[in-house]
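To: structure desk
From: M.T.
Subject: fold request, one chain
Message: Could you run this one when you get a chance? Sequence is below, nothing fancy, just the single chain.
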Amino acid sequence: MIRKLASKILSVTLIGLMLAGMFGVASSEGPYSKITTQGSFDVGPYYLHRVYYHNGLWWVFGVYMLTTAGGVLIQSGIGYSTSSDGVTWSILKLVGTQQIMYSIQFDVKFNGEYIEYISSASNLVYRKGVLQGNGNIQWLSDEQIVSSYEAKFRVSLLIDEEGYAYIFYSDSNNLDIYMMKNRYLDGNWATDYKLLIRSWGATPNHDPIVLATRLLNNRIYIISGAYQSWIVPGALYGRVFDVGTKTLGSEELIIDEAAAGQFPAMVSFEDNVYLLFENRLQNEAFMGRQDGSWTSQMLVQIGTFGNWPTLEVDPKTGILYTTDFAPSGSSVFFKEYKDNLWTEGELIADVGNSILEGGNQEEKTSIGYGNNKLAFVFYLGVVSTTGFIEVSLDRIPPISPWLSSYQIVILIVVVGAVAAALYVRRLARKKRRRSH
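Reply: Done. C-alpha cells follow.
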C-alpha cells in the first residue's frame, strides 16, 4: 500500500514539475500597467533614475506636459505618481515652480532617507523633502535658487555618503562642465565650493553630459562626455573626486572617439563602476572599472532598439540588472550580470504596440530597485503612453527548457523523502519477519 502510494506521489510530482518547467516560471508580476495623465509624462532619460521604492510605495518621477490639440502649452513641470501594487496609480502631482518641458532639464535622487531634485529653466533650483506613506512629500524648505540661468540641459545630482548634495552641469556659454556642493543638510542651499570638471577648449563640443556615482571612503566617480557634432558621439572621460581632500584625480579616457557611442547608463557597487551603452557599431556594450582600471568592451546585445539601455544594481549583492526593448520592437527583456557574465535574457512583457516597430525615437526608459523587485518604466512619446513593469527578483529562471533550479531542488527532496519512506518500510518488514 505504502509502496503504491509513494509511486503515485512520485508520478504526480514528476508530471507537475515537468508541466511547470514546460510553461516556465513567471518572471513578471503581470502585464504592464499605465500611469495615466491628461497630458504626457516623460520618465526619461534612461541614464538618470526616475523610479524609487519607499514606505510601501513605488514613486515614479518625470516631466508632465499638457498642451492643446494645436500644440499650445498649457502646463508643464516635474511631476510624480505613486503605487502600492504597481498596477493602480495615484493622480499625478506637480512639484516645483519652473515650467520645464524636457526630462533632461531635471534630476531626482533618493538616498533612502530624503528625496532631492534639481531643475534648470529660468534658474537652477534645488529642493529636498521626505517621502511619506500617504504618497505626499514633506518638503524641508521652498525651492532654493542655486544660481541664475547658467546651466544647460542634462543636469545631474548626487548625494554623498554624509548626505550633502552635489550638482553637475554644463555652462551655458562654453559648455564646460562644473560641480557645485551644497553647504547645508537642512534643505537650504548655499554653494560651499565650485570646481571645473572638464573644459572643451576654444571649440566646444555639442550636447555635453556629466554623470556621477559614489565610491567607497566618501569618493565620487564623475563621467563627462559630449557629441563631436549634433549626430556624432564623442569620447567619454572619467575622474575620481575625493570629498575629504576636495581634490580631483587624473582624467581617465574611458572610450575614445573611434569607439564612442550613446551616453551610458552608470551605476557603482563598492569601488567598482559599471557602464552600459550603445557603441559606435550600434550594439549594446558593457564596461567596468575595477581596481582603478577600465575593462574592454563586452558585447551584451547585437543591435539596440531604443538605444537607451537601463542599468541598476542590487545594493546587497552587487548583481547588475538591465531592461530594454528588443531590437525587433515591442518585447521587453530583462538581463542580469553576475560572475562576470550577462544572462541571455528573459521576456518579461510585450507592450503590443505596433508603433514601436522600426524604431521610436520618442521612447524613454528608466529603472529602479526596491522591495526585492525591479521596476521598468517606459514612455512612448508618439502615443503619449507611460507604462510600468514590475519584476520579482525572487523568481528563479529556468536553467533548462524543462526544469528550473527551484523545481530540481523540490524533485530531489521529494525523491529523497519517498526513498527514505520505502527504506524505513523495508526495515520494519525485516524486523517483523525476525520476530516471527
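Reply (cont.): Residues 1-25+406-436 form one domain. Let me know if you need anything else for the meeting.
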